[in-house]
Design brief:
With 155 residues, this protein is α+β, with helices and mostly antiparallel strands. Helices cover 29% and strands 37% of the residues. Strands 1, 2, 3, 4, 5, 6, 7, 8 and 9 form a nine-stranded antiparallel beta sheet that branches. The chain starts with a helix and ends in a 5-residue tail after the last strand. 25% of the residues are buried.
């Protein structure tokens, strides 16, 4: 009887389990999001399934590219990232109680292509996170969009 009470009182995430647990790969970017219900409209998956063959082909190319983008968090507050055109590094801080996160990207990563530019801009605007050791969602202040990551690389 006491166990459920104790469980419900702990509303703080295990930040290390989520962030410092390996490499996270981009799944997709989501718009028209309902942050609390963890859903939204997937940007590139929607394109890949479009009835217009040109749009669908672009969506499939985009997914093939972004599924190789990754972040690897370290317990010491550093991270590395990989994207089209190179890699980058930075620092991260997360608060498990209010589920906020802040990234500082070091240097000037190569954002000469649109997918890499979108990735870096998204990371620079992230304020909130939610997830567990399988799925990670990072969203801006308004929580109307997010980028979703998974531990396993998408095919």
């Amino acid at each position: 009887m006491i166990l459920p009470f104790l469980w419900s009182c702990n509303n703080e995430d295990d930040v290390e389990e989520i962030f410092a647990s390996g490499t996270w790969y981009v799944v997709d970017y989501f718009t028209k999001a309902n942050w609390d219900k963890r859903n939204g409209t997937p940007k590139y998956n929607a394109m890949a399934n479009n009835s217009d063959k040109t749009v669908a082909a672009e969506g499939r190319r985009a997914l093939q590219t972004i599924h190789n983008f990754s972040l690897t968090f370290k317990a010491d507050g550093n991270f590395t990232g990989d994207m089209q055109g190179g890699s980058f590094e930075g620092t991260w801080q997360a608060d498990g109680k209010d589920r906020t996160v802040h990234f500082t990207i070091k240097g000037n990563p190569n954002t000469s292509n649109s997918y890499s530019k979108e990735f870096i801009e998204t990371l620079n605007n992230v304020v909130f996170y939610q997830g567990d050791n399988n799925v990670l969602m990072l969203g801006p202040e308004d929580k109307r969009s997010y980028i979703q990551f998974a531990h396993k690389k998408q095919e």
